[in-house]
Amino acid sequence: MGTGNFRSPGAAIVLLSGLPGTGKTTFATALAARLPGVHIESDAVRRELFETPRYTAGEHGRVFGEVERRVEAALAANQTVMLDATNLQRKDRRRYERLALPRGARLVAIRMVAPETTARERLRRPREGFSQADERVYDLMRDKPEPFRGPVVVVDSRYPLDAALTLVTRLLGQSGG
């Protein structure tokens, strides 16, 4: 459910970040088709753990505790992880940086962006997959993004993803094309 498992030549985290409707899952799915690894989608994990999600603080803690556990297991198995979650704030991203660093795993940060009108248009359409985000959720999160402290690949999802996918595979030291 929401995860694809493949053999990977090395431990790495592709840390996706972005508001709802900016194309995180689309990008992660496309990258997983090019690279061996594990796609971990927080929305899929939430739906596995909670039949009817309520998005409470306690539920959030359980979901991201499980996501962190899965990332840690994938890194221990020397896999590449496509981590698909909003990861808008430094505190959200820091836990994955702390997992990667002591293991010598590569970390490639990706900020997915789209104009607000584009994101809202996407969120108005019937949702495919596990995300339940809509414009109301977008409004709640709109002012939360914090800048990354290190290098980040910014991907505007209005445009074809091929160049960004190629760049990320190269940053990971893999051909994947």
What kind of oligomer do you see? single chain
Shape: globular
Main beta-sheet annotation: 5 strands, parallel
Quickly name the level 1 CATH class. Alpha Beta
List the defining traits of the structure above:
5 strands, Rossmann fold, 7 helices, disordered N terminus, five-stranded parallel sheet, alpha/beta, 177 residues, globular
Give an overview of the whole structure.
With 177 residues, the protein is an alpha/beta fold. It has a single domain (12-171), classed as 3-Layer(aba) Sandwich (Rossmann fold). It has helices spanning 24-34, 42-49, 57-76, 90-103, 116-124, 135-141, 162-171; strands spanning 12-17, 38-41, 80-84, 106-113, 153-156. It has a 5-stranded parallel beta sheet, with helices on both faces. Helix 2 (42-49) crosses helix 3.
Short description:
With 177 residues, the chain is of the alpha/beta class.
Describe the secondary-structure layout.
Layout: E1 12-17, H1 24-34, E2 38-41, H2 42-49, H3 57-76, E3 80-84, H4 90-103, E4 106-113, H5 116-124, H6 135-141, E5 153-156, H7 162-171
Parallel strand pairs: 1-3, 1-4, 2-3, 4-5
Helix pairs in contact: 2-3, 3-4
